[in-house]
């Protein structure tokens, strides 16, 4: 019997995670060393229940359509492995003669692969385990950026650009608009909204990332200055924003199985709502808050072609690495140049990625902590595609008679 492969998807999806799945499937199909490729139905939890999908029986047009289908086609999971899970997983690997183990996900997912691959090695079972990067947060170590981030960055950038036009024109009603992005430990998505800005008066005016503490008094000073200058203010905040004493601005206290703080519905209030309250209480002005939560994880209509291509490429590269005998690694995207933009695929050890979050470099956020720097813009610009430009009426007023 030939060796078989299994592929799973974990954590929150992205608009291009299925492109990586397609890359793995195509890579396996073109291989003579792998007989069958199975999909985990709902991640490692489904695998432990032997819920395996025979991907070789799917129709070709369905597999081809994965590249432009949002969310996680196999179903996802956020299960944290226990020591008792590992013998169960090994037993199933042996039962189905699975020798190639692929997971698409973030740093918690890389922890899962790392533990499974190491356990199998200790038990003398030959398994090639390769991680395929995925996260809209862009917080994985070892890679220039993660598949899924460029499309989510574009989603947020366009949302802030368009809501900024709305807020500008509605400034006689609402003096401020607050947009909240995903970003538990890193402010990459919040930072990306800066690409919407072409001139000083454009949104966003202020960006707050979790890498720097949120100072309430400084925030109020900066926001009121923008209102006095432009007549309104556009503010972007990351969900993981913290006060100087480490208290979450969201007031979230609950944590998941990986000890990550839970935001949104489970975590009580939200950053966007609380910052809205702070500004309203200080100024008495009306304003809006916009919280998209997971929408940027499934907005395939805003997916960047470059992102789709790189996600697919990471999937194929994972298979190539495994077939050369590589194991215990994650595929990486290494930037060769900014202009013209060029990348190469590489690899990094799973142990250096697992359960860690890559923050933005210190020089990517300005000293006051309320916007990004030119270095950050240079990094982001090649990733998000064309940036739209909206017109503004010159408003030639009729002279009063």
Topology (elements, then pairings):
Layout: E1 3-9, H1 17-29, E2 34-40, H2 43-48, E3 52-54, H3 60-65, H4 85-95, E4 98-105, H5 107-122, E5 128-133, H6 149-169, E6 176-181, H7 188-192, E7 206-208, H8 216-230, E8 233-238, H9 271-283, E9 287-291, H10 305-323, E10 329-338, E11 341-349, H11 374-380
Parallel strand pairs: 1-2, 1-4, 4-5, 5-10, 6-8, 6-9, 7-8
Antiparallel strand pairs: 2-3, 10-11
What characteristics describe this protein?
401 residues; alpha/beta; Rossmann fold; 2 domains; seven-stranded mixed beta sheet; four-stranded parallel beta sheet; 11 helices; 33% helix; 17% strand
What does the model show?
With 401 residues, the protein is α/β, with parallel strands linked by helices. The protein has two domains: 3-147 and 302-352, Rossmann fold (3-Layer(aba) Sandwich); 152-300 and 359-383, 3-Layer(aba) Sandwich (Rossmann fold), CATH 3.40.50. It is built from eleven helices and eleven strands. It has helices at residues 17-29, 43-48, 60-65, 85-95, 107-122, 149-169, 188-192, 216-230, 271-283, 305-323, 374-380, and strands at residues 3-9, 34-40, 52-54, 98-105, 128-133, 176-181, 206-208, 233-238, 287-291, 329-338, 341-349. The strands form two sheets. The chain has a seven-stranded mixed β-sheet with strand order 3-2-1-4-5-10-11, with helices on both faces. A four-stranded parallel β-sheet has the order 7-8-6-9, sandwiched between helices. The longest helix has 21 residues, at 149-169. The mean pLDDT is 93.
């Amino acid at each position: 019997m030939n060796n078989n492969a299994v592929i799973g998807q974990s954590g929150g999806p992205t608009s291009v995670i299925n492109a990586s799945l397609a890359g793995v499937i195509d890579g396996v199909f073109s291989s003579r060393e792998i007989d069958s490729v199975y999909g985990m139905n709902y991640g490692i939890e489904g695998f432990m229940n032997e819920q395996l999908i025979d991907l070789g029986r799917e129709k070709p047009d369905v597999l081809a359509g994965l590249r432009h289908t949002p969310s996680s086609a196999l179903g996802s999971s956020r299960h944290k492995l226990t020591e008792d899970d590992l013998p169960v997983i090994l037993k199933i690997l042996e039962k189905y003669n699975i020798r190639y183990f692929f997971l698409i996900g973030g740093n918690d997912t890389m922890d899962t692969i790392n533990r499974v691959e190491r356990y199998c090695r200790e038990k003398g079972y030959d398994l090639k385990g390769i991680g395929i990067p995925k996260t809209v947060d862009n917080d994985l170590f070892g890679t220039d950026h993660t598949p899924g981030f460029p499309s989510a960055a574009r989603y947020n950038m366009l949302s802030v650009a368009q809501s900024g036009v709305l807020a500008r024109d509605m400034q006689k009603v609402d003096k401020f608009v607050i947009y909240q992005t995903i970003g538990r430990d890193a402010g990459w998505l919040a930072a990306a909204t800066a690409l919407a800005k072409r001139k000083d008066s454009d949104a966003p005016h202020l960006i707050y990332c979790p890498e720097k503490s949120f100072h309430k008094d400084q925030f109020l000073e900066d926001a009121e200055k923008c209102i006095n200058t432009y007549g309104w203010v556009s503010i972007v905040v990351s969900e993981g924003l913290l006060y100087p004493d480490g208290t979450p601005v969201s007031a979230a206290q609950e944590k998941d199985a990986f000890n990550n703080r839970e935001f949104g519905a489970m975590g009580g209030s939200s950053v966007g709502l609380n910052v809205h309250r702070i500004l309203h209480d200080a100024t008495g002005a009306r304003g809006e808050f916009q919280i998209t939560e997971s929408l940027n994880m499934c907005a395939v209509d805003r997916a960047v072609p470059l992102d789709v291509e790189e996600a697919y490429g990471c999937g194929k590269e994972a298979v190539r690495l495994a077939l050369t005998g590589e194991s215990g690694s994650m595929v990486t995207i290494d930037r060769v140049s900014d202009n013209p933009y060029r990348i190469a695929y590489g690899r990094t050890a799973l142990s250096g990625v697992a359960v860690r979050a890559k923050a933005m470099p210190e020089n990517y956020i300005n000293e006051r902590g309320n916007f990004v720097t030119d270095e950050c813009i240079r990094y982001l610009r090649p990733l998000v595609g064309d940036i739209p430009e909206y017109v503004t009426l010159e408003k030639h007023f009729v002279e009063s008679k």
